[in-house]
Design a protein that fits this description.
Blueprint lengths: L1 H17 L14 H4 L3 E5 L4 E6 L5 E5 L4 E6 L5 E5 L10 E4 L4 E5 L2 E5 L3 E8 L4 E8 L6 E7 L7 H4 L2 H4 L6 E5 L15 H19 L3 E9 L2 H10 L6 E4 L6 H15 L5 H18 L6 H11 L13 H4 L4 H7 L14 H6 L4 E6 L8 H13 L3 E6 L7 E5 L5 E6 L3 H11 L11 E4 L2
Parallel strand pairs: 11-12, 11-13, 13-14, 14-15, 15-16
Antiparallel strand pairs: 1-2, 1-8, 2-3, 3-4, 4-5, 6-7, 7-8, 9-10, 10-12, 16-19, 17-18
């Protein structure tokens, strides 16, 4: 009996290391104290703004408001150097921050001054958990719009890493940022249960209004990726004045995996019958995931026997399908539940979307590999036909995050920068309540026409 128990424990340990990486978002990591002193939003002597943000790995990330970005590191001699975007390409953009003892921020030859904003820390009650939040306000005493930042799937402290808590206040917008449950200084277990997270977001909106008092103008939600599922739900449970979503899906989480697999096969040169058969497979793996690893195995094993030796089989990756098909039902039943993040896999986003009556801006990444945009675009345009408050904008050729990239000979993408016009679009729409007639980079306004 003891031998059997040891075997099972070994299987769990091995399986936990090898399976289900897709449900394990990056968790909180401490910031290098030698870097923390430089974090802030700087106004250059020519009026431009540059944000310096912490990273979970060694170094810092700078962001210019035109979308350019890079990683910064400092050597033992105190010299700063960097790489372009998220690549390993050497960056020729001259950036220097000095030291904590002698800060001296310069960017492209221009001196930078760190801006100071009024920030109030708070703790408030979400759905059964106590959440840590922060209200950051621009200078002045008059009412301003406030964006409540709703999380994506990240598993780290938004109060530490969300750069919009500096970017928006520098542009006249208040920000309420909070650590989602199970991250940072908030209590509870990390979760991807959209209903729990929507309750938390609704509580955050209420807390933002309370803290802002007379300075609260229009108060609404803003966020990316998974926030596209959470914000419309939260809007039904609260009274926001606006909803802004970037690179989210207007389809179910299961569809995210399905569409990713289709893209995997198309990039690998498969089409037609292979795509139809792969759809059968993703329907089966989706049932396994959505059931909490309890059901769907008979169908999946039958498809393995039927298609497992076909040339397209090993090209499937997706959000989870590529990993699920590699393992036996026994392993999946054993290890899967230990990695369950409570994801609302069968969530139908359309009823909450149709119920949003306040102004809604949805920004699509036109070449999004993580959240393929085709069905989302179609669905959003159908909603916009009957709701004049819905605006749909797309940045062609951008990946998840509204990020421009280069594609290598092996087909792999290297992220280089945010799209020009992305930050300006969010700022104008949230601050002014409308987009300007002028162009925002190469973006395309899909609705209203």
């Amino acid at each position: 009996m003891r031998k059997v128990l040891v075997t099972v424990l070994v299987l769990i340990a091995v399986g936990a290391a090898a399976v289900f990486w897709w449900t394990r978002p990056e968790r909180d990591k401490p910031i290098d104290p030698r870097m923390a002193c430089h974090v802030g939003l700087y106004r250059l002597d020519d009026g431009r703004l540059v944000d310096i943000a912490p990273m979970s790995e060694p170094g810092l990330r700078w962001r210019a408001m035109d979308g350019r970005t890079g990683k910064l590191v400092q050597d033992e001699a105190g010299t700063w150097s960097g790489t372009v975007g998220w690549s390993d390409h050497a960056d020729t953009t001259p950036v220097s921050l000095g030291t904590c003892e002698k800060p001296a921020m310069t960017f492209e030859g221009h001196r930078g001054t760190k801006l100071q904003f009024e920030a109030v820390e708070t703790r408030f009650e979400g759905n059964g958990e106590t959440l840590a939040g922060r209200l950051v306000m621009p200078p002045g005493d008059g009412p301003v719009p406030i964006a409540v930042m709703v999380h994506g799937s990240e598993g780290y402290s938004a109060r530490t890493f969300n750069a919009f808590q500096r970017i928006f206040p520098a542009n006249g917008i208040g920000v309420f940022v909070y650590d989602k449950r199970g991250t940072g200084d908030s209590t509870g277990r990390y979760s991807q249960d959209f209903h729990l997270l929507a309750d938390d977001a609704a509580a955050a909106l209420k807390e933002a209004r309370r803290l802002a008092g007379k300075r609260a103008g229009r108060v609404g939600y803003s966020g990316g990726s998974q926030a596209g599922w959470i914000e419309p739900l939260a809007a039904q449970r609260s009274d926001p004045d606006f909803v802004a979503v970037s690179f989210g899906l207007a389809d179910s989480p299961l569809a995210e995996d399905r569409d990713q697999v289709q893209l995997d096969l198309i990039r690998a040169g498969f089409k037609g019958d292979a795509l139809v058969k792969a759809r059968e497979v993703t329907d089966a793996t989706g049932e396994v995931m959505a059931s909490g690893f309890k059901d769907g195995y008979d169908r999946l094993e039958a498809l393995k026997a039927k298609y497992g030796k076909e040339p397209w089989w090993n090209a499937m990756q997706g959000e989870f399908t590529g990993d699920i098909v590699k393992h036996s039902p026994t392993m999946l039943r054993l290890v899967g539940p230990f990695h369950d993040e409570g994801t609302t896999w069968r969530h139908d986003p359309m009823p909450p979307l149709r119920a949003v009556k306040v102004p809604l801006l949805w920004i699509i990444a036109g070449a999004d590999k993580e959240a393929p945009p085709e069905e989302t675009r179609r669905r959003l345009l159908s909603v916009a036909k009957t709701n004049p408050n819905v605006e749909v904008v797309e940045f062609p050729g951008t990946d998840h995050g509204i990020i421009e990239f280069e594609t290598g000979a092996d087909g792999e993408r290297t992220a280089l920068r945010y799209a020009d016009g992305y930050y300006a679009m969010l700022v104008d729409w949230i601050r002014d309540g409308a987009l300007k007639p002028a162009a925002y980079g190469n973006s395309e306004r899909l609705a209203p026409r």
